[in-house]
Amino acid sequence: MLENLHVKNLALIDEIEVEFCPGLNILTGETGAGKSILLGSVNLALGGKYSADLLRTGTKFGLVELTFSGIEGALLEQLESMDVYPEDGRIVLSRKLLTGRSTSKINGETVSMGLLKDVASLLIDIHGQHEHQSLLHKKNHLAFLDLYAGDAVKKWKEQTETAYREYQRLSKKLEESRLDEQEQKRELSLAQFEVGEIEEAGLSDGEDEELEQTYRRMLDGKRITEGIAEAYRYTSEDSSSNASDLLSRAIRALQDVAECDGQGGQLYAQLSEIDDLLNDFNRELSEYAKTFEFSDEEFYETESRLNEINHLKSKYGNSVSEILAYCEKRKQRLTELEDYEQYMQELFREVKKAKETYDSCAKKLSEARKKAAVPFVEKIKKGLLDLNFLDTRFEMRFSELKERSAGGIDDAEFYLSTNPGEALRPMGTAASGGELSRIMLVIKTVVADKEDTPTLIFDEIDTGISGITAGKVAEKMHLIGESRQVLCITHLAQIAAMADAHYAIEKAANASSTRTQIHILEEEESVQELARLLGGAKITKNILESAREMKELAKREI
Fold first, then answer.
1. What does the pLDDT look like over 66-120, one tens digit per residue?
2. In Å, how far are 461, 481, 490 from 129, measured between CA atoms?
C-alpha cells in the first residue's frame, strides 16, 4: 500500500508529508485548496508529464516521493523480474524536478522513466476524472472480463497465444518457402555450391584460433629466435666469456676455500646451486628455441590455410563454428529443395495442424469467457442497481473477430440501456460521463479481489451524484477498501463519512505566500468537516448533528 507521500516545492505546496492508512482514505477540502495539485504530484512521481511552471515560485527544484510497503507474493515476483528489489517489503519511488528536466529513482537508484512507469503501474492505479472514458473502448471490456475470470481463462489465454505464435511462424515459413521452378533450381544450385565449398575446406572447430596463434608466432619468430640465440651465447655457448664458463671458474676457485672454512663452504654450495640452475635454464632455452624452427614451406602452408578460412568467414560466419553451423543449415535446406514437393506438402500439413490447434484453444477460451461473463454481468447489474440505476439493463455481447489474434477470436462489448423503453446500445453511446464514472466504480468493485494493484486512487468520482446514490458509491468504495487500499478525493459528506482515515486539505495564506497543507482528522474534526461539506460556510447545530449522525450510521454500516 501507499504508506507515505512527500512533496516539496510544487505549485502551492511548500513541503508536505503525509502517512496514509490501510482501507478507505478520504481527502476533502475547499475548492482551490490544492486537491488537484496533490493528485498531480502523485502522477508526477509515477512518471507523468512535467513542465517547469509546476515548480513553486522562487524555487530551483521540486521533489515528489512515494513510499510503498507490504510488498510480497506475486507482486514481489513481478518486481524482481524487472530487477527491482524491495527492501524489507518497501519500495520508494522518487522524482526530482529541475528546470527543463527530471531524474527518477527507485530505492535511491537512478532509473529510466520507462522503468519508473512500469513499476508504478504495478503499485497504484489512478482513476481520475476522465479514466472512466476507457469504457468507451470496447477492447477494454474484454480485458475486464478476463480479469474477473482469472484462472478460468488464464490457461486458455496462454495456450491460445502460444498456438497463435506457432501458427504465425509456420504460415510465414510457408509463404517464404513458395518458389517457382526457376527459383527452386537457382536456390538449389546456390545451396549445393555453398555446402560443397565449406565441406571441401575440411574445417575443424577451433582450427582458426590455433592457426592464428601459430601464424603470429611465425611472424614474430625471427625477432624471438635472435633474442634466444644472443641469450644462449652469453650463458652457455663455447666462448671465453660466457656465464657458464665464468661460473665454472668461480666454483673451482672456491673449492679450496670450502675445504678450509665453514662459511666459504656455504658460499661454494650456493654457487654450485646457481650453476645447476643455469644449466637447467640453458636446456629449457634450447628447447624453447626449437619451437620457433619452421621452414618457408610451413610458413606458406599456414598462411594459405588461414587465408582460405578468412575467405569463408567473409561469406558464412565470423568463426569456424559459425561457418559449420551455417553449413548444417544449408544442408537442411538442400534436403528440402531436393524433394521440394514433399517438403511443401509437409509444411502445409504443419500449418493446417497449427491452425486446428489454435482454433481449438481459441474456442475453449471463448467458451470459458462466455461462461464467466454470466456471473460477471449479473454482479455488474446488481452493482448498478445498488447505485440507483433502477431501470437499467446491461449486457455483454460477443461476436467473432474476422481475423485470428493472439488474444483469441472474441470481440466483446458492453451494451446498456438506462431508461425504460430504450433499446440496448453500445456503452460508449448509451451512457453519460457521470454514468460511466459510476459504472467504472461498479466494475472496479466486481474485480476488486482479482486485481493485483495494491492501491487505487479515485479522483472526484462523485461528480453529478448526491443523496442515496452518493451513499451507495461510498459503500462500494469501502467494499474495495476491504481488499486493498483506496484513496478518494471527494466533495460529498456521504462518501467522506465512510472513511477509515479522513484527511483535510487546506490552503494557508499570508501577506507573501500561499501554501497547501494536509493533515489527518481526529473523530470530532472529521464531524466538523462533514458538517462543512453539508452546510457550506454556515454550520448550524442541526447540520452538526446531522454530520455526527451520518458518521455514526457509516460506522454501523461498516
1. 999 999 888 888 899 999 999 989 999 999 988 878 899 999 999 998 999 889 8
2. 7, 19, 11
**Which residues contact residue 60 at a Cβ distance below 8 angstroms, ignoring those fewer than 6 apart?**
98, 99
What are the b/e assignments for 426-444, b being 16+ CB within 10 Å?
ebeebbeeebbbbbbbbbb
**0.85 exceeded by the pTM?**
no
8 Å CB contact between 128 and 116: no
Whether 438 is covered by a domain: the verdict is: no
Q: Rounded CA gap, 88 and 77, in Å?
A: 14
Domain that holds residue 46: 1-129+460-558
Domain at 506, CATH number: 3.40.50.300
> Both 125 and 237 in a single domain?
no
Q: How far apart are CA 86 and CA 158, in angstroms?
A: 29
CA 258, CA 279: separation in Å to the nearest integer?
22
Cα–Cα distance for residue pair 13/65, rounded to 1 Å: 14
Residue with cell 505549485: 11
Please name every residue paired with 7 in a beta bridge, in sequence order, or none if there are none. 16, 64
Q: How many residues does the chain have?
A: 558
User: Is 45:64 a contact under the CB 8 Å cutoff?
Assistant: yes
In sequence order, what are the residues at sequence separation of 6 or more whose Cβ sits closer than 8 angstroms to the Cβ of residue 452? 74, 75, 78, 122
- 535 domain-assigned: yes
- Please report whether residue 337 resides in a domain: no
Joined grid coordinates for residue 9:
516545492
Summarize pLDDT for 431-442 with one digit per residue, the tens. 776 777 788 888
Quick one: cell of 306?
588461414
Q: Which residues pair with 506 in a beta bridge?
A: 517
124 and 34 together in one domain: yes
- The amino acid sitting at 278 is L
Low-confidence stretches of the chain (pLDDT < 70) are 33, 128-134, 181, 220-223, 225-226, 230, 232, 234, 237-241, 291-296, 433, 449, 451, 460, 511-512, 537, 557-558
What are the DSSP E strand ranges found in 134-279?
none
Domain boundary among 269, 285, 318: 318
Q: Report residue 397: phi and psi, to 5°.
A: -105, 140
Quote the mean pLDDT of the chain: 84
**DSSP code for 133:** G
Closest CA to 490 of 481, 482, 499: 499
Q: Using an 8 Å Cβ cutoff, are 521 and 533 in contact?
A: no
Instruction: Compute the chain's Rg from CA coordinates.
Output: 41
Beta bridge partners of 106: 93, 109
CB of 13 within 8 A of CB of 65?
Answer: no
Distance CA 300, CA 306 (A): 10
- Dist. CA 271–CA 252, nearest whole Å: 10
Q: Cβ distance 171 to 351 under 8 Å?
A: yes
Query: Distance between CA 366 and CA 375 in Å, rounded?
Result: 15
